[in-house]
Please model this.
Amino acid sequence: NAGVTQTPKFQVLKTGQSMTLQCAQDMNHNSMYWYRQDPGMGLRLIYYSASEGTTDKGEVPNGYNVSRLNKREFSLRLESAAPSQTSVYFCASSDWSGGVNQPQHFGDGTRLSIL
Amino acid sequence: AQSVTQPDIHITVSEGASLELRCNYSYGATPYLFWYVQSPGQGLQLLLKYFSGDTLVQGIKGFEAEFKRSQSSFNLRKPSVHWSDAAEYFCAVGSQAAGNKLTFGGGTRVLVKP
Model:
């Protein structure tokens, strides 16, 4: 039972390069999320997708784009990477059950360094 | 806007001693509250959640948390800490109205002394 799978696990980029972070979940969840984690700031929401075919901005969307490719997959793209985007990126998913949104399940993260 | 404050950045506790991690939230509507734990190099694992009902909730690994609406708090406790509890702990708030978007606190890193 894989849960939420993120690829790659590590990546180093040069300023200005582009990259897509991949996320897939096998729990048939409707909602998916992208967060970034920086020291002392917890996790901050970049973008989310409440259901297949929809995406919305979170707290820190600038410099990122997302694609909800299908129900399983939600990718995050950096078009022109900047050093300020050096961070650990987490993908999460959740679903609706029993009349409430259930807790989010997280992947193991992608550690991204931009030089 | 919702917000979460974890006042303690680091806590050091001796193995076998009790642990309490503080969490204060700000949210106008009825919140959903969560505690997650993160071991080094890993993702976040859910410890426990509060949606409604009994304000004392039990979680995995012997943790519990108490929701106090009057104090806007959701503190995490464990009676006796094990060395394996060394990790970073995050409190988070969400709600139905917010579409299950979570707002996280800055985290508390717990160190366990032998």
